[in-house]
Design a protein that fits this description.
The protein is mainly alpha-helical. It is about 50% helix and about 0% strand. The chain has 9 helices and 2 strands; from the N terminus they run αααββαααααα. Strands 1-2 form a two-stranded antiparallel sheet. Helix 1 (about 5-15) runs parallel beside helix 4, helix 3 runs parallel beside helix 5 (about 135-140) and helix 4 (about 115-130) packs antiparallel against helix 5. The longest helix is centred in the first third of the chain and has 23 residues, at about 40-65.
């Protein structure tokens, strides 16, 4: 929805063009975020960016997607990513898995993508600080852990085809599922498919026992298994 990147704001800050930063903030709020600027347009845009990035991290996480190069020029203000570099989908659930052959220190490892995007957001805030007080940009950044956790739970329940529960129950369910994925070394798409709509496979891996126990407290959404895809027997 946009090619205006975090790095676009950094560039204007480096060129010492505060008026262009203000103009870009106004443009983004009006045409991309479609938000009323309110009394503090810069803080409003910062909050919009944080919320979008949290959803993006959750999308990657639940899909088992590993971005190759998470620089500020590869994330746009609308909370989308591009220019993935050597990207991959996880062959098995491993937080230390990296996609880029040159990422020798795991800077952009699967389990560090939320951390990487948080760093990106801080860099965006530094650029916006040239036209707004620091105090107005800090509150949106402090929401990051809560927003990421909420977005991951939302995406995981959606992919499992389950109705929502309490935040505590959802968090425990998702954590147990990820432990099962990691210990079983099952291909992730296989596991998401097998447990869709609250189903339990005939011979589940023992690592999923805690997850299956908690699964009983969740009801499937009405259309969880309606599509013929879910009767194929094998995930795509």
């Amino acid at each position: 929805h946009s090619h205006i990147r975090y790095g676009t704001f950094q560039r204007l800050a480096a060129l010492e063009q505060p008026e262009n930063i203000r103009a870009l903030v106004d443009y983004c709020l009006a045409n991309i975020a479609r938000l009323e600027p309110g009394p503090d347009p810069v803080a409003a845009l910062m909050g919009y960016a944080v919320e979008g990035a949290a959803r993006l991290v959750a999308d990657w996480h639940v899909a088992g997607f590993v971005h190759g190069v998470l620089n500020t020029d590869n994330i746009n203000i609308s909370g989308e990513s591009f220019d993935y570099g050597p990207w991959r989908f996880l062959p098995h659930w491993e937080t230390g898995f990296t996609a880029a052959y040159f990422d020798h220190f795991g800077l952009y490892a699967f389990g560090r993508q939320a951390e990487a995007l948080q760093w990106n957001l801080v860099e965006l805030a530094k650029a916006l600080r040239t036209v707004a007080p620091t105090e107005s940009l800090v509150p949106p950044l402090r929401e990051w852990p809560r927003l990421v956790g909420e977005a991951v739970r939302t995406q995981a329940l959606w992919r499992l085809g389950l109705q929502r529960g309490t935040a505590e129950a959802e968090e425990a369910l998702v954590r147990a599922f990820e432990v099962g994925l990691g210990e079983s070394r099952l291909q992730p798409d296989r596991a998401w498919y097998d447990f869709r709509g609250g189903r339990v496979p005939a011979d589940p891996h023992p690592a999923f026992a805690p997850f299956i126990e908690q699964l009983a407290a969740f009801r499937p959404i009405a259309s969880a298994l309606d599509h013929p895809y879910w009767a194929d027997g094998e995930p795509c």
